[in-house]
Amino acid sequence: MQPIQTTESTDQTAKDIIYISYSPKDRSYLEIFIDYLMILKIKHIDYRFDHSNRTIDDWSDDVQQMISSAQMTICLLTNQYLSSALIQEKEFPAIQVRQKQGMVLFPVLIKDCLWHIIPWFDNTQIYPKSGVPLQEMDDLSREKTISQIMQDIPVWIKTNNHVQMNPSVESSIYKTNGINYANGIYYKEKIGNPDLFSGRKK
């Protein structure tokens, strides 16, 4: 088994963590996201992922710790990802526990897949909201889509952190799948691009 890569960063001042949940078979898309996430270090946002080609028998406490410390999890959705026993039996439960504690869940549709038959994802807004997988976009559209995600991530994390530290704010927000979201005018004025929010319901 290869050693676990907890992060590509050497920046010890980074505070907010994004965990990337993915299939090793989709490594090329992981690397695309990492190229963008490197830029967010300016905002003191770091990322972590499991670097090893692990199996369910290789589940590590280190991976559990990565998920437990994350303020956001990006799930790279493909059939390879959804069919993984390790993802289904280990990562999904750990992510769901953390989500109930306030972590932001952000599923990204990489390839056309059967995400909608999984209740957990079927009740969550999948990105891109258009439903077009990143794999099926031309290069320019894909770059613009990922760039928009990265521009809004600091706003989402900052807003979610504010709610977690100020429970009284919940009188002006609502919860979907354990995640806090603003509504009405507060939502539109405070949260960048509301259409990109995962899990928004009217």
Automatic annotation (TrEMBL):
InterPro entries registered for this protein in UniProt: TIR_dom, Toll_tir_struct_dom_sf
TIR domain residues: 18-113
Coiled coil, from the record: none
Pfam families linked to this entry: TIR_2
Gene3D superfamilies: Toll/interleukin-1 receptor homology (TIR) domain (3.40.50.10140)
GO biological process: signal transduction
Record-given protein name: TIR domain-containing protein
